[in-house]
Design goal:
5 strands, five-stranded antiparallel β-sheet, alpha+beta
Length: about 150
């Protein structure tokens, strides 16, 4: 193994998380305090301060500069000041969730059009790959067989 860190996302005060289970599923929250190994106190502009099990949270790369025990008002001001929603929308997870939402809102005809576009793209990629392989392959000389009498 390398000498670098194995993990780069830790549960710490100010860490932005996404709730992945329960009635608040899909909402962003900020860790305000760590209670023990299994539970944290979360707060956000979308929900009230509450104790949440860590298993219900998806940790993100984002972190707000707040101190331990910050009040709700301070956390909400920090969320607005740091434009948390825009930052999350620019992350890989945010883009993936936006794409899933867009796909779920498609009707039958739109799904049909997406299927046709995927087929067209696959055909283009396959043809380009074949052209590259033909150019890269060494040319074989045909053996001339002697004529039999």
């Amino acid at each position: 193994m390398s000498s670098g860190e194995v993990f780069n996302k830790f549960i710490e005060v100010g860490r932005v998380c996404r709730i992945n289970f329960g009635p608040e599923e899909g909402k962003l929250c900020v860790v305000a305090d760590v209670m023990n190994l299994n539970r944290v106190v979360v707060d956000s502009d979308e929900l009230e301060r509450q104790v949440m099990p860590i298993k219900r949270l998806t940790i993100t790369d984002l972190k707000l500069p707040i101190r331990w025990g910050s009040r709700t008002g301070v956390i909400r001001k920090s969320i607005v000041k740091n434009k948390l929603k825009e930052q999350f929308a620019n992350t890989i997870l945010g883009k993936k969730l936006a794409q899933l939402k867009r796909r779920s809102e498609l009707n039958d005809f739109d799904r049909f059009k997406v299927m046709l576009l995927k087929k067209k793209l696959a055909r283009i990629v396959r043809n380009k790959k074949l052209c590259v392989e033909k150019k890269a392959a060494p040319k074989k000389e045909a053996k001339k067989e002697p004529k039999k009498k």
